[in-house]
Amino acid sequence: MPRIYKSEKWKEISIKGKLQFRYAVSNLGRLMSFNKRIKDGRIITPGDTKGYKVFHYRTWVKGKINYHHYFIRELVATAFLRKKSSGQNYVIQLDHDKSNNRLSNLQWANRKEMIENYKKSPLVISARKKLNEYKKTQAGPKLTIAKVRELKKKLLNPKRRTLHKDLAKQYGVSEMALYRIKRGENWGHIKV
Questions:
Q1: What is the pLDDT of residues 23-34, one digit of tens each?
Q2: What beta strand segments (E) does the chain contain?
Q3: How many domains does the chain have?
Q4: Percentage of residues in the chain with pLDDT exceeding 70?
Q5: 98, 126, 154: which is the final residue of a domain?
């Protein structure tokens, strides 16, 4: 018999496929398998996929094994939370902790709300800072759109007397880059 906390509420969940056990999820984000009564069940430790808690299971259909998975946060939200609108298809974790699947930390969201929540994540904020610091150390692209137009005009001019080698040196690129620009492999979307 599992240890059930006083504030913990359990609800049976429906899972597609014919399974050996029935399953329930709690408002604290725990998962349990049981036969007849929830209180006689067994707590299941969910798998971990990139920090998210996941319930993996398999079904047999006509001798073929099918693998399935559910994110615990989605099971908890489906069992305990009502969607406020039909467009809310995503479950977000308010504290940005992937393993915290408590009901108080979950909320249904539409795509826009999910993206806004994602942008506020400490991991995303620190990654952006690192990317900005890295960008400051980089020189950036050698050619701008204006320079590419100017270069293409020179390359496509039949009366051109400047050698490719000299043009490459003048614009700070390799001769191969010039040939690729001329053929349209590089910067092909720029028209002259």
A1: 999 999 999 999
A2: 10-13, 22-26, 31-34, 42-44, 47-49, 52-61, 64-71, 90-93, 106-109
A3: 2
A4: 98
A5: 126
